[in-house]
Specification:
Helix content: 55-70%
Structural class: alpha/beta
Shape: globular
Distance between the termini: 56 Å
Strand content: 5-15%
Radius of gyration: 28 Å
Number of helices: 28
Length: 628
């Protein structure tokens, strides 16, 4: 592609010239139909400029991160996936544009499924004309002299490049979502099997390098609905969809699985399995291998080996107990967590070398600690479970991330947490490590990095409302209240009855001294969920905003007299908001002693703004590892 001129056929270039390419990209970036964020536009311009300048060999993740996204020299592409995420989005933006508003464009720009150098071609090029890319070898070999090279050499180079960018060479598809499998059993009692198969296939595929796998939180939003894979593809920015069903009759299980391309809804493959219940583990592995092979995400034996990670079980009873434990955990209640703990312990009793239930047991114990308080020895039990899971499967990314969470929230050991987060991020591109790391970064005041990792989490879970909630929280900690408000309003557009968003909006209104607006949100919460503890907290904030100190103190007294008592961190926030610094600091010290969930946010939350500068507050900051 390096020439300004090239052989002509019927008065037009067989290959776009530099001038034609640059003009087409300029028009593209100025087109009102091609609307992309400013930094993604910079990315396209950068890729084009480097290619036309004959510097395609400079196009790599590190160079893009530093040159385009202004990353520091210490930028590590393995730990920070911003380049891969933005390249993926830009690739889809170009596909969508040329499939719609840009269908009549004479010259088209594109990005191969693998690689960072752009491809430019005529929309209706002659059959013999290849797609020409700014390939390092082609660019350096020919440069501006291409017009003078013999047609024989040009044809040979074209043949090589034509193969490189042929449909076969570009057949890799780099993204998939596993939709919830449907339980079609007569008694409809095997939903836990269907959901468990979905969860485990998602986890297995996420072990493969180079494959973007949509997280469960977004995939399960489509559970029970009619499936239009093209619409799902647009909503999730994903290229393939796996869907299926199970039918269980006694000890026999019939499984259907089908992989579809979202661009046109076409089937890539469809398989059926009629197996004994004890063979479910093998079937799951077969499905994951088939997807990996079809998407060409991992052709090496080493890559496919991660589909069956160390610490997997061959015991069908242990596997069944584990899946039932996942179902109980996903209920999201204290009773569900307690049931899950019991089932995970039973799975471990069946197979003590089964890594997954060790991790899930630790996760449930940790969740109970943050909900009900850290009883003596509980943190040690959580760490023991995580350590055992990692002993059995050292590359379990989610276990490394959860260990980091424990080090940060409970142990106040930020350096150790940082190391574990880095390990988790290197071992896979999963939503959970990005999300947890983002909140840890926000606690430390590293807001730009926090937003970056939340965006990476959103790339893997585009419809997860919790990420909007976290993004709003980080913006609020930066005191960017209007932007935070927009995040919570976006949550309400998805679900008008989302009480966490209503509560956040009410708090923002009180911080901005708009007591009337805060009262409106509090009234909506009372109508929707009068018994929700957040409803009482919001009413308290509104009372303080309106100067009703007596009413606010009554709410605190009522909460303290009830059972269970509220966490000390919540009471500390209440007294700080009332201006009672001494009592607030007493409860804040209790929160730090008890390792209350949220104690590490003390320096960021607006509730404690009035305490900043107090020597007692500074001492507590140091205790949790936050520099004053």
């Amino acid at each position: 592609m390096g020439a300004e001129t090239a052989p002509r056929e019927n008065g037009s270039s067989a290959v776009p010239s530099h001038a034609e390419i640059r003009a087409s990209v300029d028009r593209l970036l100025q087109s009102p139909e091609f609307r992309i964020p400013a930094r993604r536009a910079r990315l396209l311009a950068y890729l084009t400029d480097r290619s036309l300048a004959g510097e395609a060999e400079r196009i790599n993740e590190y160079a893009i991160g530093v040159d385009v996204f202004e990353k520091p020299a210490s930028f590590d592409p393995k730990a920070d996936a911003v380049v891969r995420a933005e390249i993926s989005r830009l690739r889809q933006n170009l596909k969508d544009y040329y499939a719609g508003a840009g269908a009549a464009d004479r010259i088209r720009s594109g990005l191969p499924a693998r690689g960072y150098f752009p491809v430019f071609r005529f929309a209706a090029a002659p059959a013999a004309a290849p797609e020409i890319a700014a390939d390092p070898v082609a660019t350096k070999a020919f440069g501006w002299r291409l017009a003078a090279v013999s047609l024989v050499v040009l044809a040979a180079a074209g043949a090589v490049l034509a193969w490189r960018f042929s449909p076969v060479a570009q057949a890799r598809l780099d993204s998939v979502v596993v939709l919830p499998f449907v339980d079609l059993s007569a008694d409809r009692q095997s939903g836990y099997l269907a959901d468990g198969l979905t969860d485990e296939l998602t986890s297995d595929l996420a072990n493969l390098n180079g494959l973007r796998v949509i997280a469960r939180t977004s995939a399960f939003l489509f559970k029970g609905g009619a499936v239009d894979v093209r619409q799902i593809g647009r909503q999730l920015n994903v290229e393939t969809v796996l869907e299926g069903s199970i039918v269980r009759a006694g000890d026999r299980v019939h499984i259907r699985a089908q992989l579809n391309r979202t661009q046109d809804g076409s089937h890539l493959w469809s398989h059926t399995y009629d197996v004994h219940f004890s063979d479910l583990i093998t079937v799951q592995q077969d499905i994951a291998r088939s997807i990996a092979d079809d998407l060409q995400s991992s052709r090496s034996k080493e890559g496919n080996a991660r589909l069956i990670p160390p610490g997997a079980t061959t015991d069908p009873e242990a596997h069944d107990l584990y899946l039932r434990g996942l179902e109980a955990a996903n209920i999201g209640t204290s009773q569900g967590y307690e049931k899950s703990i019991s089932l995970m312990q039973a799975a471990i009793a069946r197979d003590s070398r089964y890594a997954a239930p060790w991790f899930s047991l630790a996760k449930m114990l940790e969740t109970m600690g943050y909900l009900g308080g850290w009883t003596p020895g509980l943190a040690d039990r959580v760490r023991s479970g995580l350590d055992r899971a990692l002993e059995l499967d050292p590359q379990m990314a989610v276990a490394h991330a959860d260990l980091a969470y424990l080090d940060w929230e409970y142990g106040y050991d930020w350096d150790r947490a940082e190391r574990e987060f880095r390990l988790a991020l290197q071992l896979g591109n999963r939503q959970e490590p990005h999300k947890l790391y983002a909140m840890s970064l926000a606690d430390q005041g590293r807001f730009a990095e926090s937003h970056e990792h939340l965006r990476m989490a959103e790339d893997l879970a585009p419809l997860d409302a919790e990420l909007l909630f976290f993004e709003g929280g980080v913006l609020a900690w930066e005191r960017r209240f209007p932007e935070a408000e927009q995040k919570y309003l976006a949550m309400l557009r998805r679900n008008p009855n989302e009480t966490s968003a209503l509560a956040a909006l009410a708090y923002i209104a009180t911080w901005e001294k708009d007591c009337a607006k805060a009262g409106e949100y509090a009234a909506r919460m009372t109508r929707i969920s009068p018994a929700d503890y957040r409803t009482g907290s919001v009413r308290f904030a509104v009372m303080v905003c309106n100067g009703d100190r007596a009413g606010a103190l009554k709410i605190i007294a009522t909460r303290q007299a009830g059972a269970p008592k509220p966490p000390a961190i919540e009471t500390a926030q209440g007294y700080a908001y009332l201006g009672d610094k001494d009592t607030a600091l007493q409860y804040l010290e209790k929160a730090v002693d008890r390792h209350d969930f949220g104690a590490t946010t003390m320096k960021r939350t607006p509730y404690f703004d009035s305490l900043h500068g107090d020597p007692r507050f500074i001492a507590l900051e140091r205790r949790v590892g936050l520099e004053p």
